[in-house]
Amino acid sequence: MSQKPSVKKSIQMPPEALTRDNRGLPSRPNRRKIGLGVMAFVQLRCSEHDAAATAEFQRIIETSPNFLACHNTTGAGDLLLIAVARDLDNYSAFVKTTLRRLPGVTSIRSNLSLREMKSSSQLPVIRGEI
């Protein structure tokens, strides 16, 4: 019995849709060039911290393509998320249909990016420390 080779789906993007690293090499999609004009930094406060609420919250965060990152933080809020949307109307709908329905959320504070000044996934490596 022969097995089908596994096929990995990939999205082909035109070169102009990719940002370039400091060497000029394509590194990752440019969100604006693929139609995601809004980036929001979202601070949430939560009233529920039990295992069930946390698991459901995490499931929603992990399955929503709009969330790029989620961090449990210190300070005024409990969580800091990075989310993207096509435009302000799309972000408004996302707040209504997704953010406001997250379990235990008592406060949502969105800060919209006006201009991305630096974005990198490259980590600094200092000789002798690793």
Poorly predicted tracts of residues: 1-10
Number of strands: 6
Main sheet strand line-up: 4-5-3-6
Distance between the termini: 48 Å
Looking at the overall shape, the CATH architecture of the domain at 35-112 is: 2-Layer Sandwich
CATH superfamily placement of the domain at 35-112: Lrp/AsnC effector binding domain/regulation of amino acid metabolism (RAM) domain
Q: What's the total helix number?
A: 2
Largest sheet: 4 strands, antiparallel
Average pLDDT, rounded to a whole number, is: 83
Radius of gyration: 18 Å
CATH topology group of the domain at 35-112: Alpha-Beta Plaits
Helical content (DSSP H or I, runs of 4+): 10-25%
Q: Structural class, please?
A: alpha+beta
How does the overall form come out from the CA principal axes?
A: globular
Strand content: 25-35%
CATH class of the domain at 35-112: Alpha Beta
Order of helices and strands: EEEHEEHE
Region (Disordered): 1-31
GO biological process, one term: response to amino acid
Domain Transcription regulator AsnC/Lrp ligand binding: 42-116
Organism: Limimaricola cinnabarinus
